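Reviewers of the previous submission asked for a worked example of the structure-prediction workflow described in the proposal, so we include one complete record here. The input consisted solely of the amino acid sequence. No template or homolog information was supplied to the procedure at any stage.
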Amino acid sequence: MKVFAKSKHNLNREQVAEALDLDSAEDREALRRRLRAMERDGQLMFNKHNGYSLIDQNLLVSGSVSIHPDGFAFVSYSDTEKDLFLPANQVSNVFDGDIVQVLMSPSGAGQRSFNKLIKVLERQTTHIVGELKRKGDSYYLVPESSKLALKIDVDQQHMMDAKVGQLVNTEILEYPTFRQNTFVQIIEVLGDPQDPGIEITVALHRHGILEGWTDEEFDYAEDLGTEVAETDKLGRADYRHLPFMTIDGADARDFDDAVYCERKKSGEWRLMVAIADVSHYVRPDDVLDIEAQTRATSIYFPGHVVPMLPETLSNGLCSLNPNVDRLAIVCDMTINAKGIVTSSEFSEGVIHSHARLTYDQANAVAVQRQSKMARDVANSNPNIIEHIKNLHELYNVLIPARSKRGAIDFDTQELKFNLDKNKKIATMSPVIRNDAHKMIEEFMLCANVATANFLDEHKIPSLFRSHDGPTDKKLTALREFLSEKGLTLGGGDKPTSQHYNQLLTKIVDRGDASIIRTMLLRSQSQADYSPKNDGHFGLAYDAYAHFTSPIRRYPDLLAHRAIRAKMADKKKSTFQRLKSRIVSRGAGNVAYPYNKKDMKELGIHCSNQSRQADEVSREVENWLKCQYMQKFNGQTFNATISGVANFGLFVELDQMGIEGLIHSTNLSDQGKDYELGDKLEVVMNKVDMQQRKIDFLIK
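From that input alone, the workflow returned the following structure tokens.
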């Protein structure tokens, strides 16, 4: 180290040997090994043209690497938004997500290529999913991830009878270096690329997500039974006489929320939201809880779901099925004529759902009262008709309050995939949201806010659903885009949700309204789970939490436990509360064994799992979209420019919401200017299933 510290220039191995007076072949070989070790440990940097140089340890940073499909990468370090750029030649032996050590360029901004990868500190990838290929006598893997541009050799001693062209899951035996390829062995054959549902199988294996249940987990759920035990009803409020009902999609299989509404003599409204009491059956640290916490959320795909809890439970005891008794946590709210929740309280209850309605059925009764569907509902469930009308009247009271509050309504169009018998897209159709959809959504928001206020008031360590306003970086990019469109967003450096709504109202009749809405949506921060209540920017709430879906979201289950623990504490005598505190200090509070540190860790975990679920769902949808578009080769579509890059234009098909690229080499008029939101006629050119990319041409 002293030799390098004294030198103002790089030193090659020969110069170092001379400086140390090393003459023998044995000493020089030891020097060679030592220099290589110092390079590997991040003490020296080697350049084949200039030799070795000492690394300034103050310029070394560690972080997670994110590899772009085009080969280059960024390294996220500390808590800053700034990332370090690494060119493709620096990440040839790195996997997406690896923790790496990087030497930052001391040269200032703009000179990206000076950042240098020093070493991989921690590998995050242990398995690779891909298509098996053969070249001569050797087998290799083409990875499914576009973020893996590595050469991957396959161990021929463990082929598992896999055939060339099949998709396989492999385990990494040897990680890559600058001198050798990644070496893997096949551990499972997943199937052929055209198999029904293969895209889901591949996505789950790629992300290491388990779909099934162990025998222990399955048996535990089965042993809970199918009917509520009479002993479990003791001590609970009995709401079975009230005509609670569930209102869900036609294809729903589990029902975790039921609603009831009545008008009080005072003119106020009573809204009761009953949520299946999952916390009664899934206790902290039991076998189902451990797995539910690991999963943290259900994952939804077109025509398929990977549940957080076994379906025997989520479709049985924890589903508010019609005409059976079920345990529930009930949020009982009073709402005034201005649509403001003036009071709320929680109780452990027993309910008996009087009807299972679809959104279309409820909407028919509320809005289309003379329709055949409305008459059919009235004939089969005459006792609930007035209650549906009450629900809709309350909804009409809540909507002005929502508008006054300033909740953002992006009015985005959701598409439904209609699958064929092979689980591929047959057709695509827009999802029509009627008043019943919006009504139930509004009632769930009321219950979630009541939950957040309860948790905040009682200072219970718990998770809030927080959503910050746009960052300065995103806000600057948005304002630049809006300026090009002749628009402005009010609020200066701190716009509110009201300012977003004002702009959304202003653009409603513009031809480019869709792309403007998209850019406004992109400017939003990601919501996350946090023990700190930071409010919810998009919904314009001072406090917000998730309570209404404990079947499919772990934070909701935690909220239920917190509420039940507080209610149980209220029922105890002073002596019992004192005794509980003494016991909990020594052995842990069995009912609610969480502190602030636990909640911070759970918040990070649940946020990550939620984002992973979204990512996995998008991957499957992109696969299905690419397969679907293959049959439209050569056909013309109307499209809107959704992104502009130096390599081309991203366009979104107006009727399908499918995005693709017009490469710069295919832009016939090289002198023409293109902007976000411009309308084009495009021709479907080709689909790259390996990269999940769709290419278009301008007509």
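The longest helix spans residues 596-629. We consider this example representative of the routine output the project will generate in years two and three.
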